């Protein structure tokens, strides 16, 4: 089961990364891989708004952060501050990026009702269900009215996820149940495109 401690492996991998290729592209470059481009086109691009604030959970080396830079502000959340140093090296100290080091389920310092859009990819697939529930609960207070939340999560009903011990024990029904129990309404979901995971978009029930 991928615990917070298990997830330290990303920091250990990144600090020894060969910087010729951006850290994260080893899992697929969304500019080159069709299935990832379709996630970007369907779940990110329609929501990017120059007056609004985005928050990315598990921003890592910025593989998806690069598409969020059109927001007024993008808050990068990660358990490892080393990832923030990498992002500053990669994108420069640009004013729209800010950083929030999480304890694994929280958003210290993020103001209440300030976030219009949340994205996470490659992160919740490795979070045990109690951590996912923790994030779903803690998100409620930082979301602005009408905010959209987009989460890619592991689907253990798909063979590629079932065979990967680093993938969390989630499925479509388990994730949908957690989302609804935490007080959200599901707007749309893509269960077809990715071979090991699904992408769900939801909002707070007003
Ligand atoms: C597999 S990497 C994916 C990074 C990036 N999202 C991507 O797709 O390239 C997972 C990232 O999530 C971070 N992470 C792991 N557990 C986390 C948690 N509970 N809260 C926030 N970030 C977490 C790791 O430090 C790492 O940067």
TrEMBL record:
<dbReference type="InterPro" id="IPR041698">
    <property type="entry name" value="Methyltransf_25"/>
</dbReference>
<dbReference type="InterPro" id="IPR029063">
    <property type="entry name" value="SAM-dependent_MTases_sf"/>
</dbReference>
<dbReference type="Pfam" id="PF13649">
    <property type="entry name" value="Methyltransf_25"/>
</dbReference>
<dbReference type="GO" id="GO:0032259">
    <property type="term" value="P:methylation"/>
</dbReference>
<keyword id="KW-0489">Methyltransferase</keyword>
<keyword id="KW-0808">Transferase</keyword>
<feature type="domain" description="Methyltransferase">
    <location>
        <begin position="55"/>
        <end position="146"/>
    </location>
</feature>
<dbReference type="GO" id="GO:0008168">
    <property type="term" value="F:methyltransferase activity"/>
</dbReference>
<protein>
    <submittedName>
        <fullName>Methyltransferase domain protein</fullName>
    </submittedName>
</protein>
């Amino acid at each position: 089961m991928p615990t917070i401690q298990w997830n330290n492996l990303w920091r250990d991998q990144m600090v020894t990364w060969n910087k010729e290729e951006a850290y994260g592209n080893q899992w697929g470059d969304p500019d080159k891989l069709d299935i990832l481009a379709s996630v970007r086109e369907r779940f990110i691009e329609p929501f990017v708004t120059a007056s609004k604030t985005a928050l990315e959970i598990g921003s890592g080396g910025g593989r998806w952060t690069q598409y969020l830079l059109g927001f007024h502000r993008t808050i990068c959340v990660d358990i490892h501050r080393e990832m923030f140093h990498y992002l500053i090296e990669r994108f420069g100290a640009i004013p729209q990026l800010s950083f929030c080091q999480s304890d694994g389920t929280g958003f210290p310092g993020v103001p209440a009702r300030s976030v219009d859009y949340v994205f996470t990819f490659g992160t919740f697939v490795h979070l045990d269900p109690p951590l996912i529930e923790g994030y779903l609960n803690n998100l409620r207070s930082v979301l602005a009215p009408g905010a959209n939340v987009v989460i890619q999560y592991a689907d253990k009903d798909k063979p590629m996820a079932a065979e990967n011990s680093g993938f969390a024990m989630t499925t479509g029904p388990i994730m949908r149940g957690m989302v609804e129990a935490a007080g959200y309404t599901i707007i749309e979901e893509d269960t077809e495109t990715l071979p090991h995971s699904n992408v769900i978009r939801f909002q707070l029930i007003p």
